[in-house]
Amino acid sequence: MSAYYEGIIMAVGINILLAIGLWTTVSTGQFSFGHAAFMGVGAYLSGLLTVTFKLPLVPAAAVGAVAAGITGVLVAFPALRLTHLYLAMATLGFAEIARVIFMNQDALGGANGMGGMSGSTPLLVWVVVIVSLTYLWLLGRSRQGLAFDAVRQDETAARAMGMNVTWIKVMAFGQGALITGFAGALYAHFTFYIEPSMFGIERSVVILLFVVFGGMSNLVGPVLGAIVLSLFPEFFRFLKDWYLFVYGGVLVVMMIWRPQGIWGQRWAPMDLLGSLFPEVKRQRARRVAEPATPPEVR
Amino acid sequence: MFFQQIVNGLLLGSTYSLTALGFTLMLGVLGLLNFAHGEAFMISAYVGFTFAVLFKLPFEVAAIAGTLSAGAISVIIYYVSFAFVKREYMAAPILSTIGVAMLLQTVATRFWGSDIRPFPEPFGQDAVEVGPVLVSSVQIGTMLAAFALMAGFYVFLSRAKLGKAMRAISESPMHAALLGIRVEKTILATFFISGMLAGIAGILIGLIFHNLTPYMGTSVLLKAMTVMILGGLGNAIGAMAGGLIIGIVETFSVGYLGASWRDALVFVILILVLVLKPSGLFGTRQHEEKL
Amino acid sequence: MLAIKSLDRSFGGLMALEKVELTVTRGDIHGLIGPNGAGKTTLFNVITGFLSPTAGRIHFEDRDITGKGPSEITHQGIARTFQNVRLFSEMTVLQNVLVGQHCRAPGGFLRMFPISTRREKALQEEAEELLMLVGLQDFRSRPAGSLPFGAQRLLELARALATRPRLLLLDEPRSGMNREETDRLCSYVQGIRDLGVTVLLIEHDMNMVMRLSDRVTVLNFGRKIAEGSPAEVQNNQAVREAYLGSSTLNA
Predict the structure, then answer these.
(1) For residues B224 and B42, is the Cβ–Cβ distance under 8 A?
(2) Does residue B128 contact residue B135 with C-beta atoms inside 8 Å?
(3) Which of A149, A157, A267 sits opposite C143 (nearest CB)?
(4) Are strands C78-80 and A193-194 parallel, antiparallel or unpaired?
């Protein structure tokens, strides 16, 4: 198999990991625009370990992933107090801050980036993809998965069911960050060179696009979205510099034509992405004045 | 030096105020977080540049062209991202505006190149000493224009029929409709005006800083978000005051922290405000409680 | 079983609840009535931990539960339904009930994988039984949001029962139901009490309240204005005034 095809297979695999990493977090209703930062943590830390400390790739990537996961957990706590719109904006800010931090570390090469990483193979990437997908699939069918979904659909009711919503949300953030971090590590050792601008808002938006385009109802959506949108530039090489334009156009068209994504389910009156909006506005739009629902004070 | 920084900060901040004003209005009136607002700002500056430098038209014409283009973009966004999008998917409009932003930014990068372009300086480069500060007449003019605009807008919101309609819709679209306000038309007008405000800000930024990049839209968007949070969602006064504050903070931080931390500091403020006092400095709106 | 002492809850300057005293006896069906805005749902919110009281204490089975959070309250054995049904509308009917069992399912690692232990099988069977109890077993695979409104309320009831509460708080369970459904609901509530669950019921339907309740408490403007057996409360002057307006009506 030529290096070219190997590259595509790896790129698709890495994008799938990024998409399902974001999806894990979003599946509890926490909309994060900052997952690219976790990717960067995984990429930079693993790169540092392999290049400077000569660690083999797999342990280095694992360490990078765990570090990203821990970062995710740390970010999740203040994020708990934020919902909807506010969370989106805060995570956006977080992504930019992370990028600036990366840019100012001389140990990481600063604005000039870090190079010299290598070692990702299609086998390794896809082993990680299969393992992650299996894990997430099992999780989805377990009671914990049900709990994740409950938290996403109605946090208040979930609390009333005795769920530790804090724990669930933090776990979702952490796990999503971990998978994203692993993807970052594999990415770094695939492109041989990384720099801070690769892990900023633009990247976060592209990952978001995978998930939104594919559909957020279940695991198939992000995978599908990642595959289609990764292969797309390959089939339309003449668009090279315009691919962001096309992605943007895809987003606009999708929101008009099929907002739930290609694989998303149509019927729900409340949608997953509705979590981006203040509960009050949602209620205002859909119901006529009704007696108050129990306000959340926690 | 200190006062010079203050003046620079106010200058910068006034453009943030204008941009954030439009941003917060669109959020208040429609609940729409318009991610493409920053791109409207950017496009206006580039259109102005094109008209003045490439078409060699008088600066006034260029400025108007730029402003109108931003207004037009905003109206298009209203249709594409909101009117044509099914209401039940509440976050779809926001995602759509993200798409529009990507579209616009790519167009700008391809069309005008990603290198820095110089904005015309139609009024020369004199410097006048006003007390401890050195300002150019351009800067004075810009500042006067921006503050006059903000003051005028405040009056507009409190006195003019359209302005009051906007505020009514912000409070409750349903009640506004019941009171006979033409909601659809008012929203359209809000978008157009918001776009123009951003457009003017774009021209002003060009005059103040002379350099244009296609990425200035993203940068200003994040600042506008911070300003909006700082000032309180949907709060016009908050947006104006917040813009000035952020402008000043940013200017001082460059002096003491260096350029690359400058942007990060603003986002740190964003996060701090969100975590500590989400309703912002001026916001006490009821729905903030739920958040 | 439930003892509420001198409970206050204010919002800014407004006293939503003022010096409320309430005792629910184990095994009772206890009605809570009052005009709109009297503070009934607020009281529920305080009991179940969604709001904390500004003053006063709440004891459940001799344990002080004042100020505890909602999930802990559920673990203590108190469950509730919501005035505006809060189902997980995208999940199936059966899944909603299963979610109710979350606080009783084996925890830790086991929760993360769809393993079928004996306990898990027992829980699944129990969920099916709860659905049969409220007559929804044929709808088990339908999305909860697609059910007619009355059925949704019944599902919420089943889901609350899945938490195995010892005290069940029902917030206007019959609103949106027709006569026939209401009658069914009444028999369900009595059945639930016979199973050993104490019930605290907010209702506007006077017939239903008088029929079911062993004791009734009346709130108005956040204060308790009457308490007693259904008959006593019905004949209480203060209660009449609260609902009908001033006594000049009778003059």
Answers:
(1) no
(2) yes
(3) A267
(4) unpaired
Domain hosting A230: range is: 3-286
Overall domain count for chain A? 1
Alpha carbons A75 and B246: distance in angstroms, whole number: 24
CB neighbours of residue B114 within 10 Å: 13
| Radius of gyration (C-alpha) of chain C in whole angstroms | 19
* CB-based contact A99:A43 (threshold 8 Å): no
Which residues of chain C are under the pLDDT cut of 50?
247-251
* Per-residue confidence band for A158, with pLDDT thresholds at 50, 70 and 90: very high
Q: Could you give the CA distance from residue B118 to residue B54 in angstroms, rounded to a whole number?
A: 12
Q: Shortest Cα distance from A298 to chain B (angstroms)?
A: 10
A-chain CB neighbours of C48 within 8 Å are 160
Q: What are phi and psi of C116, to 5 degrees?
A: -100, 85
Across the interface, do A97 and B267 touch by the CB < 8 Å criterion?
yes
CATH number at residue C33: 3.40.50.300
Question: Is C116 near chain A, with CB under 8 Å?
Answer: no
What is the rounded (10 degree) CA torsion for B6, B8, B11, B17? -60
Over residues A177-195, the pLDDT tens digits come to 999 999 999 999 998 888 8
Interface mutation vs chain B, best among A241, A243, A251, most B CBs within 10 Å: A251
Give the domain extent around C153. Answer: 88-164
Give the nearest partner residue to A248 out of B99, B174, B267, using CB atoms.
Answer: B99
- Asked if C151 and C99 sit in the same domain, the reply is yes
Cα→Cα distances B55→B58, B61, B198, Å:
9, 11, 23
Helices (H), chain B: 2-30, 37-49, 59-77, 92-112, 137-159, 161-171, 173-178, 183-209, 216-231, 236-257, 259-276, 286-290
Q: Does the distance separating the beta carbons of B225 and A252 come in below 8 Å?
A: no
